[in-house]
Design a protein that fits this description.
The structure is a homodimer.
Chain A (H helix, E strand, L loop, with lengths): L2 H8 L5 H8 L2 H10 L5 E2 H8 L3 H13 L3 E6 L2 E6 L2 H13 L10 H12 L1 E3 L2 E3 H13 L3 E2 L5 E2 L1 H9 L14 E4 L6 E4 H13 L3 E3 L6 E3 L1 H11 L3 H4 L3
Antiparallel strand pairs in A: 1-3, 2-3, 4-5, 6-7, 8-9, 10-11
The structure holds a DNA duplex.
DNA sequence: CGCTCGTTTCGGCCGGGGCCGAAGTGTCAC
DNA sequence: GTGACACTTCGGCCCCGGCCGAAACGAGCG
């Protein structure tokens, strides 16, 4: 039995390394981070986004799809990819929460503006993050719609509150209704999970928020500001990007 | 601006790759999986466990400690390492849940026995897994001590039940009280989080379970069988390893 | 049917990094 | 002191894998 066999023999259990390897490359990790916006991107979009040749992107995407991190959908001569599901988004988030934030200082005015818009309010896969996302979570805690008694949880008052707003949360799934997601600009936890996703969806559907350009950034609309003030007591200044 | 700079410029946000790289090697991943037992191991123990030279293990451990995945503690000429905390264990678990299980067929009778003991009952960092871990979770669901209404949660009856048993769960932390952990033998979720940890600790403290050899496997003692039958209605056959 | 453009395949280059063994450092026991 | 032992450092080997460009492929479109 040579060395390789020794190693194999001791390597029982799940094969962490092959999954981790998929995220262990800067380019592939960048793809996944980009896809955290929840949308489907084409291969060339991702290639340009990370500054690599299309051929390189193709290979990476193959690996990610084969590893079940991404799902692909082909339309004509385009190949769209998106995250394979919320579980992948959560894996990426928990990895990101542990990673050092190496966001570089903005090099241009427009880059600084983009960064500020993202820091103010953005989607994080399927829920809200940024200053606004954290503020919503804090307000819900203050009003006892959520509590921290045993980790983050929805109170019965919170359940009623959702119902009054006409927000229905898909039940019965394994997905936790409330999950705490640590985001990388605020470094503070905000509301994720099924409730976070439902709330975000509702905010889009009713026009409280609207996407900014083609990024993950969102802006709070006038009706949105009004609704958030009434339902959560959030101030206008907080909701307006300076 | 050359190609490298382009890539750097687009690589904003958390540096997923460097964290993932730590787990992207079979040997380092094996170390972490071994450390999931929650104990502290010495460098040589881990080296022998994975079949690599001590010098190799040293380098890997340095990387893992520098990356904040492991904590080290030096005692005399020994260097003990353990997982840096529950968040690391959870990261490893979520990675493992996504990884293909490449557990090889046992090559010897003793290996088969070890495997069976592990499959029956074992610790998973700080809570219980295996057939027994899943059975406890199922029984708690059936008795409405837990519910699945919005993800896995502790009911008020469950809180009372814990109190009656004299189990106190540290409150007020960010750690979720109840978390679902997918284990790699049963492929079914079982109770983790602060409650899972407290329950496991209680089971050790009161002698319901006892470690088997130096592995993660545990055996249910006679008092343990009695207690689990009385408090959760678990049958003796289920709790005895065949 | 030829042109465009998004995607894929392939060959080849090159750097990073995992591995070992040999030698060095520090700790404990006698 | 003199071993024994746990751990570390270093040099060197070698392979894996990310990158590109060139060329092929195939869907849309006039």
């Amino acid at each position: 039995m040579d060395r390789m066999d020794m190693q194999r023999a001791h390597a029982a259990g799940p094969d962490l390394a092959t999954v981790a390897k998929l995220l262990a490359d800067g380019t592939r990790a960048g793809f996944c981070l980009a896809l955290l916006d929840g949308r489907a991107w084409t291969a060339t979009e991702l290639a340009r986004h990370m500054g690599v040749a299309p051929s390189t992107a193709t290979e990476h995407l193959h690996a990610l799809v084969r590893g079940n991190l991404l799902a692909e959908e082909r339309q004509g001569r385009h190949r769209y990819v998106r995250l394979a599901g919320p579980h992948v988004a959560e894996l990426i988030e928990s990895l990101a929460a542990m990673a050092p934030d190496r966001t570089p200082a903005p090099r241009s005015l427009s880059a600084a503006g983009r960064r500020q818009a993202l820091a103010h309010a953005r989607t994080c896969y399927d829920h809200l993050a940024g200053t606004v996302g954290v503020a919503i979570t804090d307000a819900m805690l203050e009003r006892r719609l959520l509590d921290l008694e045993h980790g983050l949880g929805l109170t019965s008052a919170g359940a009623r509150w959702l119902e009054e707003l006409g927000i229905t949360v898909p039940a019965g799934t394994r997905r936790p209704s409330v999950r705490s997601c640590l985001d990388w600009t605020e470094r503070r936890p905000h509301l994720a999970g099924a409730v976070g996703a439902a709330l975000c969806r509702h905010a889009f559907d009713t026009g409280w928020i609207t996407p900014v350009g083609t990024t993950r950034a969102v802006a709070v609309t006038a009706p949105g500001r009004q609704a958030l003030r009434r339902h959560l007591g959030l101030s206008d200044e907080l909701l307006t990007q300076t």
